[in-house]
Amino acid sequence: MKNLISLALISLLILGCKSQEEAQIVDLERNDQVSIFDLVDSISVVKLETNENCFLSFLVQRIIYKNRFYFFDYKQRIIFCFDNNGKFLYKINKFGRGPDEYEAIASFSIDKFNDQLMILVPYGSILYYDLDGKFISKEKLPSEIIAYNEVHSINKDVLLFISSNKIRAAYYSKSNKSLIKRFMEVTPEQDKVFSSTRRTYNYKDSIYYNDYTNNTIFNLSNITFNNIKHKWNFGENNNTNEQLQNFNLYKDNQKKNKKPLDFKDIIKFFNHYPGQSLESNTFIGMSLHYKGSMKYVFYNKLAKIYKIFANTTEGVSPYLDFISNNSIINTYSDKNNEILKKILSEEQKKIIESHDQSNDNPFLVIYHIK
Predict the structure, then answer these.
(1) How far apart are the C-alpha atoms of 287 and 300, rounded to whole Å?
(2) What is the rounded distance in angstroms from the CA atom of residue 137 to the CA atom of residue 215?
(3) Going by C-beta distance under 8 Å and a sequence separation of 6 or more, which residues neighbour residue 289?
(4) Which H or E run includes 353?
């Protein structure tokens, strides 16, 4: 009996601590004094090789894996690969309808469990390549999902698909060539507000998903149960159902009048508009639009405190658009960026000073998060 009581008390204490942690309110009015070196262990600068075979134009994905950089150029429909020193290695340029070709690229990712590169075609197929760009196979996917947007590897057999369907996510067995489970159904109102894509991030071989409508980060790598990793609470700046409904009216009206959606107008409907998320050994972070500007929120998992800022004390804004391997990958073309020069070493400055903005590929500034 005493043991049962002790277990009950321990459970209450654990639940109580968890509730207190989740109850912390992120005050978006704060602008904390945060140095970029409070967040990062180190900063790398890489100048990408430029030649007639590898000229980058419009990058929409960037991945670091096993000392290589992989880039998806949306305009050219090409995957480029460089080594960690920026030397060009190869590109995958197979646009077409053949057995080893793709009609379009929704996204690409690295299957860490099988060391393969996966190119996802939005119309329902996936192409597999080895890490040196050699074609392996092309597989047709189930027709139950209308539009495929993202693919992630869960283990050696199971893939996770994120789509813009009413049911956002699906697990797929490669060996059985079938869907195992579909989940994360959204209401028609929720479906119109936030895109299903660019909400995931990788951390320690797990896939996490930031559910904007509930301010909740879920672990999607557990097929049986998608447990909560973290909850955001912005207090009076949490978005409301009324705001969601007003935005949907605006969106329907724009569609009726055949007018495009303007992002500057979209963010005005909400107390905050969430951006990308990341996680490292020390932090869970996210970017968001608040009162017309970008804000960053970093939660220190060890100290259990938040830091909220628009820029670091050095003036750096580490844009969270591209996150990979606990690192933020930013690209620049302007070698006269004075803010960057404040945080780089003399050797790194030489790299960007040698950059030719008119003829060279962009250079990378990589922030390795603590």
Answers:
(1) 15
(2) 38
(3) 267, 272, 273, 275, 295
(4) helix 346-353
Residue with tokens 């597989």: 139
Least Cα distance to 128 among 147, 154, 153, 163 occurs for 153
Sheet holding 283-290, edge to edge: 273-279, 283-290, 293-300, 305-309
Confidence of residue 8 (pLDDT cuts 50, 70, 90): very low
Q: Any alpha helices (H) in 108-201, and if so which ranges?
A: 188-193
Q: Which amino acid is at 277?
A: S
CATH entry, 94-231, from 3.30.1540.20, 1.10.10.10, 2.130.10.10, 3.50.50.60: 2.130.10.10
Reported as a single tens digit per residue, the pLDDT across 241-277 is: 898 888 888 888 888 988 888 888 888 889 999 988 9
Closest to 189 in 3D by CA, of 261, 239, 237, 226: 239
Residue 186 is encoded by which pair of tokens?
A: 């959204």
Kindly report, residue by residue over 287-319, the tens digit of the pLDDT: 999 998 899 999 999 999 999 999 999 988 877
**Alpha carbon of 177 to those of 163, 171, 207, 229, 317: distances in Å?**
18, 11, 21, 30, 44
- pLDDT for 308 equals 96
**What is the rounded distance in angstroms from the CA atom of residue 283 to the CA atom of residue 297?**
10
How does DSSP assign 217-256, residue by residue? EEE-S-SS---EEEE---GGGS--HHHHHHHHHHHHHHHH
- Structure tokens belonging to residue 126: 């996936």
* Structural domain spans, the chain: 26-54+272-370, 94-231, 240-271
Beta bridge partners of residue 307, listed in sequence order:
298
Q: Which amino acid is it at 246?
A: N
CA distances from 331 to 19, 81, 115, 174, 325 (A): 39, 15, 26, 35, 16
Give residue 4's pLDDT band: very low, low, confident or very high (50, 70, 90): very low
Please give the radius of gyration of the chain, using alpha carbons only, rounded to the nearest integer. 22
Q: Which of 21, 9, 98 shows the shortest CA–CA distance to 306?
A: 21
